[in-house]
Amino acid sequence: MQRDFLFRFISIFLLFFFTIKSYSSNLPVKFEGSEHMTAGDKTKLFFSSEEGSTGHLLHLPNGLALTYGQLIALGDFYGLPKEPIALGKSEKERTTRFHAAFNTLAMTEQTVAETNQILQVFNFEKNEIEEGMKRGEKPEDIYKRIEKETTIKFNCITGGGCDSNWWMNPGRYLELQKTNFDHFGKNALLAYQAGHQLALEEAIEAHHIHDLNKLEIAYAMDGFAAHFLTDRFASGHMRTPRVELFSHVTPSVVGSILSGYMHGEDNENGLHVHNLNRDQWIAYGDRFYFNDCNKENIERMQQVLQISVNEIFYAYENGTMPYENEIAKLIPEPNEIKNNSHLDISSLFYWDEPSYKLYRRTNLDNYFDKHWTTNWWGWSTLLLLAKRHGLTIENQANLVLSGYGEIALRDGLLTDKDISNYVRYKVYKDN
Ligand SMILES: [Zn+2]
Q: Which one, of 212, 174, 196, 229, lies nearest residue 102 by Cα?
């Protein structure tokens, strides 16, 4: 998920969605009475044949105790940046990669304090938004205002820089964003399936030794995997050619930034989607999770989360894998990759497998332009889109760290004072 939308997503997620249960005394967060229930924490977990319950704390080997919903939310903060799960070549390799990613959250002791701090930043965001909105501020303006502060906090908490030069030392959180292929398209499904498979195997083991704590770990794995599943229900994550933009645009840092712009367009404008069961509906993206227009999409997502959890309990109760792959039939697929019927906006980019080419919408400003071209350049496209939508500080930092500071400064892309002053000083010193 790209940064600017990430904040909105997580915060709205928390604001309307999560009942954050404090798991330690110094984290007094509780959104009791929230009108909107969380998808993750609305999911009922089962531990016996009795009624399932929500908000159950799942205990991890390192001492962390998190709800299923918190595990979903932490999917953007843990993992191995150099080993995206979906890029594993076989099912076995993907499962191994998922396990390694999950262990970065579940096994090390330092994670306990770190996760606590991440949840506190979520809480800070939630308060800022609530207070700001009371004063009549628009959510998008609030996010813009606190964007730098929260980015630095997340960077600092995950091992990166903390002061005004924070951006020179990217922490794991920022490193994960650079290769977040697991959060888009078919890769999101592959990453989820790898984790869900591992969780099912864990549940079967738990069955054999009658170990409820092992069942908790199976649920926790499933929650971590479900991050990718929930991303897959956001329209901006459905058809954006995230990997191809990274690998076919030179430099790749620009390709990644461009995928963020497409993510934003599709999130906001929504897409007509269908699934293998032939259901049809409209899906919106991260910023619209709780908007009325996205209600059906969210209900369908919650349904899928519940099936995922039910399958884990089935494996625990019976000691066998569930028969049918019900979830695969319920995943939204965009009706159109380009735009042939004017139902949706035209894809900003699309990957054409037969010709092995990356197409761009010819007119960037006209969402309904039906022309695409292969004759385009990453940098000039970036300039046009940045002029219209701005460029996040994280992406400004990425450009400078990748060696494009001087040209980015010349082209007016560096609007952050700390970053632009650094580049200016460097240019001055070098000359
Ligand atoms: Zn994500």
A: 196
| pLDDT of 23 | 27
Tell me the whole-structure pTM to 2 decimals: 0.88
| pLDDT on residue 319 | 97
pLDDT > 50? residue 274: yes
Give percent of the chain above pLDDT 90.
Answer: 69
Judged against a pLDDT cut of 50, whether residue 2 lies above it is answered with: no
Rounded to the nearest angstrom, the distance between the alpha carbon of 76 and the centre of ligand 1 is 5
> What is the mean predicted confidence (pLDDT) over 248-270?
94
* Span from the CA of 214 to the centroid of ligand 1 (angstroms): 26
Q: How far is the CA of 281 from the centre of ligand 1 (A)?
A: 22
Residue 228 alpha carbon to ligand 1 centre in Å:
6
Residue 204 Cα to ligand 1 midpoint, Å, equals: 28
